[in-house]
Amino acid sequence: MANLQARTRALFTSIPLGLIILNNEAVIEAVNPALASMLNRAECEFFGHQLSFIFRKSAVKKLFEALPTSNKQDRFELLELEIATKDKEIIIVDVSGNSFQADGSTKIVLTLKDASERIQLEQFRHQLLNIVSHDLRAPLASFHCFLNSLKMGDCGELTQNGLEKLQIAEAGIARLNRMIRDLLEMAKLESGAIKLVQTSFAAGEFIQQTTSAINDLARSKCIDLKVSNGDAEIFADRERLSQVLTNFLANAIQYSPAGTTVLVSTKQLSDGDVEISVADSGPGITAGQEYAIFDPFLRLAGTAVAHPDGIGLGLNICKQIVELHGGTIGCTSNPQGGSTFWLRLPPKPKHQGDNQNFSPLL
Predict the structure, then answer these.
(1) What is d(CA 248, CA 241) in angstroms, rounded to the nearest whole number?
(2) Which CATH number goes with the domain that contains 339?
(3) Which of 34, 65, 77, 148 would be 96's cystine partner, CB 3.0–4.6 Å?
(4) Is residue 291 domain-shared with residue 226, that is, in the same domain?
């Protein structure tokens, strides 16, 4: 027991994050050296004080509303609050908290992390996205209009070689626009700005509608698109789920040899989840890379991700959308060749109606 207490004390004093221990009346019992250093105070100065000794008044109210209690959750996380140093300097910190039992009573430990670096990164990302969405989109739109003007013969009739060059330029602009769209979509997902509108609908009808919209692409590639529907009901944001399935289908069609089949299947699993899968006859996924292909910007040799069109965000966006639903996503290599991409969604919660706006804490 003494050894355990010594290790706990060593961890408490050495951890680089600020730590505060409160009693069940939210009075400070201890802080670690990192917190004392952050606020330019000695550790002994904090004992017996209320939270207002550290946090600004506006922050104290938010903190009390979130503090774990015996009749609420036992933890909270990622509150952005302001604290004041001994010299009245304001520091913005990310605060999380957990309750625990010690000496026969409930204690609360607060973890504080300086948020300045995170805020700077968010500001940089916001500036970068502004550049992407405005400073790049505007000239691309102008280029597109100019190419349309050339195609219409406003600058004279083009030769066959000129028309071919024009098509190459149009394809390049379309590719850049897709990249910009994916970057903005990923940023929205990561910031929690996307809200799901979940409804219940039949899996079979949904699959048929989504595959019908991409049938022309399949026919142009001489791919036979088949559907095997189970009797299942899906509870999801239909538009977002269609976005994921369309990505699966487009990849499968793109990398399957002509004359092969892409199979879309749905089934109800024993735990109540609904699984949607897309099996293809493409190059497959190298063993050990089944999870890595969902990482952003990753390009893996020998797989669909290595294709030059795109910047490797499509599958990462799919992953974030599925996880926003509380589901899982993955892929497996098929023994006979090709791969199967799948997603699994939980059933509709009991006593929950449709048209629910839902955005879990990210």
Answers:
(1) 11
(2) 3.30.565.10
(3) 77
(4) yes
